Amino acid sequence: MATDGRLNDLFDELRAGGEVDSRGSFTLDRAQARAKMQKFQLADARRYVLELVQAAVLRGATRIAFDIDADDMRMRFDGRPFTPAELDDLWGSIFADGDGADLRGVRQLALGLNAALGLKPRRIVVRSGSQQVVLAPGRDDAWTAIDAPVAETTIHVAQRLHLGLVVAFFRDLRGSLGEEVHLRERCRYARVAITLDGVAIAGGPKIERALVVDDLAEPGVEGAIGLVEHEPAAEVRLVKDGVWIDTHPLEGCGPGLVAIVEAEALRKDVSMAKIVADHGFEQVAGLIRAARWGLYARLVEAAEQGRLKTEQALPRARREVLQFLKLRDLRKRAEVAPLARAITWMDARTCPGGQAMQVSLAALVEAVVTDPDSGVRELPYAIRSYPELKAEGPPIPRIGRDQAGDLARLLSCNMVAVDDGLEAAQKREKARLEWQKRPVLPRLADFGRYLLRTPLAGPGIDGELGIASEAVDGGRQDGRIWLIAQGCLLRQVDVDLGVPGLELAVAAEFTPSALFDDAARDARLVEVVLRTLAALPGPLVDLAERTAGSRIEAGVRGVVKGWLLLAVDADARAGLWARLRVPEALWPAPDEVGRWLPTSEQLRSGAGPWARLRQVPLFEDFDGARRSLDELARRLAQVGRLEEVDRSEESEPGLGREIVRLGRGDRKILAGLLGGEAVLQSWAPTLAQQRRGRRFRAQPQRSIVEAAEARVAELRAAGLDPGLWSRVWASDGVEAVMILRPPAGTRGPVKEGAPASIELRFEGRPLATRTLDLGFAPITAVASAKTLKPNASWDDVADDEAMAAVTAGLQRAVWSLVAGVVRRWMTGSGVDDATWTWLRSQLLLRLTQCTREEVIREAQVLLQVPLFATLGRRVLSLEEVDAVVAAEGHIAWVPMTTPGATLPDPPIVREEAPAIAALRHWVGESRLIDGRERLRARRLERRLADLPTVTSLTLDPAAVWTTTSLAGDNAKVEGEVGLQRGRSDAALRIDICMDGRKIGDFVHEDAGAPLLAIACDPELPLTIDGEVDARSKRYGQLLRRCRRAAHGLVAQLCERHASLPDEEREAARVLLLEYAARRIDRAKRDGSEPGRGVEAVRTLPLLVDVWGRRCSLVDVEGRKGGAIEVVTQSVAAPPDTMAAGRMILVVDPPARRCLEAIGEVTAIDHRWAEVVAGMRARIASPPCEVPDLRRVAWVDRKATIAGGLQAHLWIPRTPTKDDTVALAHEGREIGRMMALAALPCAGIVSGEGLTSASILDARQRSSLVKQVCRLYETLAKQVNSGGRMNASERDAAAEWLAYVDGELAACEDPVLGELGKALTQLQAALAELVPPALRQARASAAQTEARKRAEAQKAAEAQLAGETAEPAATAVRAAAAPVEVVATPAAEPLPAPTPEQQLLALVRAELEWARARHGSTLERLRLDRLAIGTGREPGIARFDQGIVLQARHSLIARALTRLAIGEAPDPVDMVFVMANVYTVMNEVAEEIGADDEQAFVARLSEGLAAGLARV
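The structure corresponding to this sequence follows.
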């Protein structure tokens, strides 16, 4: 059902005044309905004529006539007259049910007449059918019957006489009355005949200046659509009941499209001047979009027929299609087909001299292909033209990148640019044409010098091959191939063909490369090369025979060998194919090669044409003799192998007879022809051996005697005795001269032996130098033996057994040499102490390596040498060591660090590690024992003899409270541990006994309780001095056993506590309290449990209060929170009536320490009288209760503050600066305090820590002030958000917060430095509420007031002193100058800011709020830049590459004047300035919306109102 949009809202309002009359209908009092209708008026009341036109059209009018002058509007139309019932219910028709044309006509009549009444006419007369209605403002409607009914409707609107009619008269003369303008403008598209003052003004839906036009005719829709010149934005002009109501842009359509549409589905909004963009409108727009394609088809048809210029029509059609046409429309709409045929592109392949082929859009639809792998639709296209290519195959349109995207959208495919492929194809075509310009014959050049030339022929092959003469003259060795196809040269290829100098010109059916500059490396090329090789054997043999004995004979042999290598070696052929770049898959198999080249068997057989080849002397022996294949074959048959050396080896006279010299290729040829590489045996090792033998025997011969003489000379030159340090040895066929050379300088101990350097000789000549381990170092020797033979390399001994015999002889020689040196030392001549120390370390090291038998056999003298020192002064020899072991079964040792001592036999060796290692190796591991235990026992025996004796391992009962045994499960430990009387410390005192002697007493702190112990443990480790090893594990276990016993001992004492005598009970109390204090402290530190001893102490009544009541630690811990109140001296007991709910303990130092371990302790001795008075006052004080906070408070807050106190705070709705917080105890007020003067609030603080004399300590007050800050922060946030507050409350709260902000800024209370985050967040919340300008104004006012007071005081003082006012003022200014500007030392004073700078600073401070919301935007648009301008532009501020404040404006000028005289700008002026600045920002930056501006102005206003109330 078509309705009139938001006009329904008016209908709903009218219906609200109705009453139920009967089911299905409503009635409404005429006067009431008319009054409500007056609320609804058109934006332009003179549009009422358009409403009347719509009413006439809805009543079926075919003619409408208007006669309008300055004071009358007369309208006449035919159609169905209005019935008396319709006119009677004229105003009620607005909400009548139904949607028929007649009813809608009545509604439009009512709306038009209602609008006309808004013009305050004299009267309105409506005559229709048999009824007349007279309407007049302020009077009731009059209905009368017409005596003679008329078949038409007339409406007369008569205006009142007023001055405006004169103006209207002249407008009427020009035809510019408002009603006339609306009728001409809005009724031009009506289909009914409409006249104005006798002139027709309606012509139906006609489109001016249209290129093509088409009619729109659909059910419920009619109109026209056209394309106009100059291409304005597409639009649809919407007509409703004959009146052009509105114009909407057409989304999804290109420019130049105009539609005029009248449709039933269109709905007007409440203004009657707009069409609602709803579903009905979208249906109309959809019909227009669909109809445009037929219109564009007519456009193209007109261009094809010559009625329009092509350049005027086709670009518009192409643009519209590419931008908006869809693929489904392209395929299914018949009217789109002409467009698809007419829109074309040029094919990118434009053949030279030919006509470019055009590709239509329809052809491109068919050219789209689907990729079989990805399933993606694709269309190839090119950006450039390619004139060398012919347009063959699927079309490839030339399309710009800008159109490619549109075409991809239209065809739903990926546009694939193929320019690279087309560029390559064009390049190939150019190369083909160039190739055809290179004709050549398949023959070798006539000017070339060739040793041989022979034709090459075969199916599809024609050519000539030859061997270049320069290849055998030492010139170029590479071959050359001219590849010819279709009579034209493809490429000249220079390549190593394996046969030196081989050149080939050949024409065949080669496959050209992509650019026709080479031939494909395919089977055809392989065949050509194989045919070439197959054609060479005969000509090569002829050439070899012809050139035998000539200067080029060697070169020709190389050519023949090259061919042979290719024939018999697969690797050589593989190298040829690789150099020709033939793909490995096309390399011919051996059977394929066998079709063209002879096999190894054929060559070996010597039959047929290959017999001549076997006679050619291709090879050479090491002695220079030439050999053919036949000769080498016979040698192989005789010897079974061919011995060969590399060709790089130079021949020597007398060497290498019948040894063939071969190169790498020669070996492969012979291996292939004679049966493989196994037939070849390298003669190189034999050659090298013979050469080394010759070089060895070329050395001079020298005897051992001559070598000994040379070594003796060396020793004498070094200042050493040759008779002592050298030996000439001859035994068992071994001759040697040996030298032991002691090191020069400081000689330390030897850690390990260095190998000896031995020069071995054969036949008197040096053969090799060996390094041998002979046990001593440094040893050098020259040795020879008849059994030594050289190896094949003449660089070492060949026989290992012979070398082992020589080594054994040398070892004996070394022992002999060392034994001689030892004898000389024992005689005391020739060997100094340093040398002996060095030699002794060598002897000790050698003793760890050799056997006892070897020493006795080779150097028996060593048995008497003193080698091992003892604890005394004695040094033992090996014989003496053996004697001790024989007598005792072992020998003892101690480290060298052991102090000396006098002991009876057997002796104890005291040595360093090397000597001990030698001793262990000599006597055996089991016979060398640790001597420290013997030494310790000896010393302990001496010490125990002097210690006191112990008769009992029990404690004196009089010295301890309780005891327990230390034995436990360990039967070896005996003794007791107990709680010692007379002490309360935490030390353990323990006596350690052993063998009935007290060997020590120890004191250990941190035992937890005063412990006393006596213990005997025979397994306690002792030091070498016989003292207890306090660091041992065993001793630590004993201490832990004693400490663990403390818990049980304390528990026992607790059990006995009640039965102890009074004097003992007090001592025990002190011990138990000290113990509990220490254990509780320790448990807190390390997180452990106090233990069962503390649990027992906690239950004892060890404490007493001021009323004489005994209590335990459990009682103290069970009281409510707060500090523990104590007095440290006896006080008069307060009355018992004060004892309820209060605990005040009388403590001595042990009790106080124990209580401090439990919690916080407060001593109240110094204010005891005050406490008692407070308790009395508390009993008499009134109760303290929280009022009804919903009624009296803006906000409240509950919190726990320091000391476990409970705080309930609130800000009253009528706050004052004197509001305080009540301190309460047990529901009674005991005092009042102000948390912070700058933040007044009400509340109650209560808790066990508060007493009648209590005040909050610094920590508690700081905690309380933090909660007050959070309370005020909550209030500030509520004021900012407006939540839970009406307007008056919000204004009052904002005013109070502005006051608080000022007080907080001026506050200097030290507690502010302890508030941290709580204060920071409060200040941030207040900053959102109180603008910076107000703060600065307030601060400036305060400074001004302070300055005035100071000046007044100075003036008064000066007057009293007899000074004039002017000198006083001058003195004041001079004195104040240093205070206003504080300069750093040695720096110039800063200039005072100008008024302009001060004003800009104030504005910049206010804009901090804007920067927080739009920081990056302000920087980008330069809105963060401020300046003062002197131009004459209107307004407070303007934008010119920044915000410029207009200095000539009165507000800016007044602010600058006040700043110049030292006063702050007026806050009201600053509010207007900032509002204008923010409006400028809103106009420049789209990101700053109206809501931002409203919030900003509201913030300034609230802050201003609150500040002015306080300043």
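The chain has 49 helices and 58 strands.
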